[in-house]
Amino acid sequence: MNKSELISSMAEKSKLTKKDAEAALKSFIESVQEALEKGEKVQLVGFGTFETRERAEREGRNPRTKETIKIPATTVPVFKAGKEFKERVNK
Question: Count of CB atoms within 10 A of residue 51's CB?
Fold first, then answer.
């Protein structure tokens, strides 16, 4: 399912117009991104949790030259599915 298919599905299930569903999806995504930028966790009971994790600096290898390179430390977004979500997917 891509973004436009998701918007259509949301509009159908919520009885909103596609334009309103798109605005709702966009505001949801922006809200989650802003919270994660601030280092906050977004917890949706029954669905899952969006959070950030620190990835330490590590050594890697350039596959072309086999040269060792340092991969810098980064902060990455993570989604952890909730219990109900996992159960529904594993039916």
Answer: 17
Angle at 40 between CA 5 and CA 89, to 5 degrees: 40
pLDDT digits (tens, 9 = 90+) for 1-53: 999 999 999 999 999 999 999 999 999 999 999 999 999 999 999 999 999 99
For 47, how many CA atoms within 13 A lie in the half-sphere containing its CB? 6
What does the angle CA 82 – CA 38 – CA 21 come to, to the nearest 5 degrees?
60
**pTM to 2 decimal places:** 0.80
DSSP assignment string, the chain: --HHHHHHHHHHHHT--HHHHHHHHHHHHHHHHHHHHTT--EEETTTEEEEEEEE--EEEE-TTT--EEEEPPEEEEEEEE-HHHHHHHT-
- CA–CA separation, 60 vs 68, rounded Å? 6
Task: Indicate the residue type of 27.
Answer: S
